[in-house]
Amino acid sequence: MANQIIIRVPDSCREERRHILKWIFEERFQLKMDIEFEKDRCQCSISLEGQVQSILLPDVFFGMYSGVEEQIPMPISPLKRVELGSRLLPVLFGHGDSEKGYSPSEEGAVISVDIFGSAFWLLFRLEEVSPVVPLDRHSRFPFADSVAYRENFLNYPLIDHYLIFLQKVMEQVWSRPLALRDSYRVTVSHDIDRPYLYHHLNPAKIIAKGIRAKSYSTARQLWGKRNRARVKPTSDPFFCMDKIMDLSESEGMKSAFYILAGGANRKFDPCYHPDQQPFLDLLRRIESRGHAIGLHGSYETGRNRELLLAEFTRLKRIPCLNSEEVKKTRQHYLRWHPLETPRIHEELGIEEDASLCFAGHSGFRCGTCHSFAMFDLFRREPLKLRQQPLIFMDTTVLSPIYRGPLSNEKIFQLCSSLSENCKEVGGVFSMLWHNTFFADILGNNALENHELYTHLLRAK
Ligand SMILES: [Zn+2]
Which residue blocks in 175-290 are alpha helix, DSSP H? Predict the structure, then answer.
């Protein structure tokens, strides 16, 4: 469609509105768009150049929003469900008593859902800005208190479905086909929290473990495994990144490895040195095989610019790496703050973050599985930094701290359903599998896990 879309909106929250409208119309629909801010307007309208008919939408969220320093509007629970296309979907912000999300009018159509405001609210995690609920032990917003979980839409991308509905309404009103960008694919990434099980052990640690186990033979075995791993690092069960690359390549995929390069928290930051052997050689292999390397920002870095800068610099300075290629990040423990973390990433020149998934529950924390440019909620300005939401993390279903351990059958079912939900909206099913998952420890069965993982990669 060559014609230009014209969006007329009330004259407030200009930067916020521009940002979300650009994502919706320019990125997702790939349309040329013009925005007109009008002082006396209280609804939003969508028109197409050369067409008389237009579509009206309510302006609920932005009508009440004045930035994060004021009270942030919240959806009112229980959310009303309305028919949007073939689905009954919850309405975050909207109005009207109709059970239908859309009604034809003489001028075109009236939609009862505030699609623009709801998308902004969910993508940029407005409910996490001033939480009234206690945070979890890692100071993260608890999934169980999210509107998505409470209203039962965490398992599908609500905003992507809103846009499919909008597409149908626009097609009907203007009698023209319109397409949403389809970029369905499965991606895999691996946070390297612990690259070694035995390799890094020193005599004092081994003696301490032997004493704890009250067993001389435990200490002797560990010593033997440690020496073997020193001679042949890939014999260390955690140092299996080459096998992970083999698996990805056999399915025509590339992996992304997120590497820790420091840490200030003695309890939660594992300490290893990416700039020392045998890790250096591994990085070289990852790069030469065309897989991606990103920074795994340590525990405190989501709110500590200097620390993240030091880690990013250390990783980029590793001689064998092409520093220009290191541009992604994911925060350790998925610790992320809506006002601070995106700004820190932006200032460091990081191009993509992939931290947005609840550690305790798989699904669609941002209501979308499409990437989007972040927004600085405090300074009220758009950022270049992209967010690629994470949809599934192995720990969520394997660790007893969260929902695990689930059976492999259940994990497969869950991943298949999440992947289908991404496929339906042409998004990205982004999975995180730790290297430690492929070792026969921590209650894992390496062979079974290997089979499960391969099965998942093939099922794409
Ligand atoms: Zn981690």
Answer: 203-213, 216-231, 241-250, 279-288
Residue 92: how many other CB atoms lie within 10 Å: 29
Strand extents, DSSP E, 203-306: 255-259, 292-297
pLDDT tier for residue 213 given thresholds of 50, 70 and 90:
confident
Q: Do 27 and 20 touch, CB atoms closer than 8 A? A: no
What distance in angstroms lies between residue 331's CA and the mean position of ligand 1's atoms? 7
Q: What is the mean pLDDT of residues 422-434?
A: 96
Q: For residue 246, report the phi and psi dihedrals to the nearest 5 degrees.
A: -60, -45
Let me know if 228 is exposed, middle or buried by CB neighbors in 10 A (0-12, 13-18, 19+).
middle
Ligand 1 center from residue 205 Cα (angstroms): 23
Amino acid at 93: F
- Can you tell me the distance from the alpha carbon of 312 to that of 328, in angstroms, rounded to the nearest whole number? 10
User: Are the C-beta atoms of residues 186 and 108 closer than 8 Å to each other?
Assistant: no
CATH 3.20.20.370 range(s) for the chain read: 185-197+237-458
Within the chain, how many helices (H) and strands (E) appear?
Answer: 14, 17
- Full DSSP string of 57-116: EE--HHHH---TTSPPP-PPSSPPEEEETTEEEE-SSB--S-SBSEEEETTEEEE-B-HH
The 8-class DSSP code of residue 46 comes to: E
CA of 292 to the centre of ligand 1 (A): 17
- State the distance from the centre of ligand 1 to the C-alpha of 272, rounded, in angstroms: 13
How far is it, in rounded angstroms, from Cα 5 to Cα 47? 6
Distance CA 439, CA 165 (A): 45
For 287, the enclosing helix (H) or strand (E) is helix 279-288
What is the CA(68)–ligand 1 centre distance, in A?
29
The pair of three-digit structure tokens given for residue 292, joined into one six-digit string? 């991606």
- Amino acid at the residue 437: F
Sequential DSSP letters for 129-178: TS-SSPP-TTS---GGGSHHHHTT-TTS-HHHHHHHHHHHHHHHHHT---
pLDDT tens, 116-157? Answer: 999 999 999 999 998 889 999 999 999 999 999 999 999 999
Find tokens 């089979």 and name the residue.
451
Question: Which class is domain 185-197+237-458?
Answer: alpha beta
